[in-house]
Amino acid sequence: MSAPGLGALRLDHPVMVASGCGGTGRELAPFVDLDGLGFVTRTLTRHPHPGGAMPRVVESPSGLLHAVGLHNPGLEVFLAEELPWLVRAGARVVVSFCASTLGEYAELTHLLASAPGLVGVEVNLSSPDADGVGAFDAREPFHAASAVAAVRRELPADLALLVKVRPDPVRVVETARAVRDAGAGAVVVGGALAAAMPDGRPAGLSGPAVRPVATAAVRTLVRTAPEIPVVACGGITTSEHVRDYLAAGAVAVQVGTGLLHDPTLITRLVHDLEETS
Amino acid sequence: MLAVGRAGAFRVLSLAAPGVPAAFRPGTFVVASPGDDRLAARAWWIHRVDPASAFGPTIEVVVDPGSPSGAWFADLAVGTRIALTGPLGRPFTLPRQPVAALLVGEGHAVAPLLALAERLRARECPVTLLVGARDEKHLLAVREARRLVRQVVVVTEDGSVGHRGVVADHVGSLLASSSAGVLYTAGRPDAVRAVASIAASSDVPSQVALEVPMPCGTGLCHGCVVAVVGDDAVPRQVRACTEGPVLPGHRIDWEALP
């Protein structure tokens, strides 16, 4: 299927791997067929990030708290060592990335523009601790739009441009409108709620605990701005949840935390959706 | 879940696990999570496997009911179905030549060493096993080990069985007396650190199976990183669940571990 707003990102089914929960793809490969699967990479940055202090992931009732700190090898290493493998495996690869300045957004997009096999990018504006990881502060819709515009200018027109925004039911519409006007093809609503680790460090909260919040954000956005394609992400563990998001108006969904709990989850979801479609 | 046996203070759980025994290597583990509201994985060493029991392929894991997640696992009723993923992780590397090996474990961390001893014996490596525990109740697999390996040395902190003390007190002398060419150990970083450093100072290569919290067990979450130093002397981070849990002892940056 070619969902509205996803451009070159053609999906065989509406379930994608969310950023940060599919590893490099190699770890997921024993549990799910990557061929034809929409795969969003962990968020990549200009330079390698060693990540944050331990513990980085702890459980919270019905969710996981994470402060991984954008642990990644840097975009150039990813393009050289990880992307070719993912493309060979047949994954429909979407690179998630974030930058510290508008100029760096342009620079990273320029690197991505010619990456062989890439079908799209996802600008990560939903980091729960942007300051802590040195990311460009995109809390204000104007700033979010500036970042997306910088990416749009460098990105070939046929590549999908997804923008991940915070699942904030109160402010999601203004941010989504701003990034859509700046050139986003679709908005990914989901990702982590800003939270704190038991020791007080900034963290993100993901998993079933946040699903009602993400659902509210998706519903609000679809109702208020139906012209914006929405990809829903947050707390999916059953095909029922997928159907709920699609019924709420999402064009596709992403599965993240559920994979940490059960790496075969996507296989099961796709099977269940086919059974009952 | 087929059966729950007692081993002193521990429980030995037998589980029907199709596919796991065939891929099992000593040092690998399985993960399971307590439920819908507690999502982080709990990792368990695979203690023993039986590819063809009366119940089909089965595995045994050792659980300490005194630990929070161990209590959940040990209290599962026989017949309960749980979602297990495994075998996961990188196993112990076996020597190509028959060399003497010293295996060191304390408490429930002896679990992965028994199957390792079997495989070493199959390769004609003389095996010495050093088993430690708080007290007699926390000794694991000593009787089975005596049938399996050349020498078993037991150490308890309260002196109730064998020597009084901790395993680190005996590693140096056993390395020398057994002429060990390799040391294998498993356990939490604070427990295996001393053992690995004694091996390093004796110039004996060590294989350390680290027991650290692994929130997913599959390498997806990057939540169990261990600082190591590569062959090129460059510091790196590896995931205990994927590049480990078994790592060469001299590569681990112990200062950076909790």
Automatic annotation (TrEMBL), chain A:
InterPro entries: Aldolase_TIM, DHO_dehydrogenase, Dihydroorotate_DH_1_2, Dihydroorotate_DH_cat, Dihydroorotate_DH_CS. The keyword Flavoprotein applies. One of its GO terms (molecular function) is dihydroorotate dehydrogenase activity. Keywords: Flavoprotein, FMN, Oxidoreductase, Pyrimidine biosynthesis. It comes from the Bacteria. GO terms for biological process: 'de novo' pyrimidine nucleobase biosynthetic process; 'de novo' UMP biosynthetic process. Pathway: Pyrimidine metabolism; UMP biosynthesis via de novo pathway. Its cofactor is FMN. Residues 9-275 form the Dihydroorotate dehydrogenase catalytic domain. This is Dihydroorotate dehydrogenase.
TrEMBL record, chain B:
[2Fe-2S] cluster binds at C216, C221, C224, C241. GO terms for molecular function: 2 iron, 2 sulfur cluster binding; flavin adenine dinucleotide binding; metal ion binding. This is Dihydroorotate dehydrogenase electron transfer subunit. InterPro entries: Cyt_c3_hydrogenase_gsu, Dihydroorotate_DH_ele_sf, Dihydroorotate_DH_Fe-S-bd, FNR_nucleotide-bd, PyrK_electron_transfer, Riboflavin_synthase-like_b-brl. The keyword Membrane does not apply. Pfam families: DHODB_Fe-S_bind. Residues 214-252 form the Dihydroorotate dehydrogenase electron transfer subunit iron-sulphur cluster binding domain. One of its GO terms (biological process) is pyrimidine nucleotide biosynthetic process. Transmembrane segments: none annotated. It comes from Nocardioides jishulii. Belongs to the PyrK family. Keywords: 2Fe-2S, Electron transport, FAD, Flavoprotein, Iron, Iron-sulfur, Metal-binding, Transport. Coiled coil: none annotated. Binds 1 [2Fe-2S] cluster per subunit. Its cofactor is [2Fe-2S] cluster.
